[in-house]
Design brief:
about 100 residues, alpha+beta, Alpha-Beta Plaits, four-stranded antiparallel sheet, about 35% strand, globular
């Protein structure tokens, strides 16, 4: 199983919204992918509600059976719609993938 974790820092304002508004929009967009992309087994996404770090506003956790499934998800048109918006509103992105 592949675990895919991404964390972003959001711009204070971008694409007509505040960081909080854009974070909530990203959360909804990603959650709406559930059941629409076969390769995506599980996804969780949340905002840093305690403002515990300046370097992370939003974190995503997802699971895939294989590396190929993760790669298929990455290029899937529905995921790419999310990516297009996310690129407009984030100042930084970090990710890690690991196998269990």
């Amino acid at each position: 199983m592949i675990k895919h974790i991404v964390w972003w820092t959001l711009k204070d304002e971008a694409a007509g919204g505040t960081a909080e508004e854009n974070g909530l929009k990203i959360k909804k967009m990603i959650e709406d992918l559930n059941g629409k992309i076969d390769e995506l087994n599980h996804v969780e996404i949340g905002l840093d509600v305690f403002e515990s770090t300046q370097e992370c506003s939003l974190v995503l956790y997802s699971e895939f059976n294989t590396r190929e499934d993760l790669q298929a998800y990455a290029v899937h048109p529905l995921h790419q719609e999310c990516v297009a918006f996310i690129k407009q509103v984030v100042s930084s992105r970090h990710a890690i993938d690991y196998v269990i």
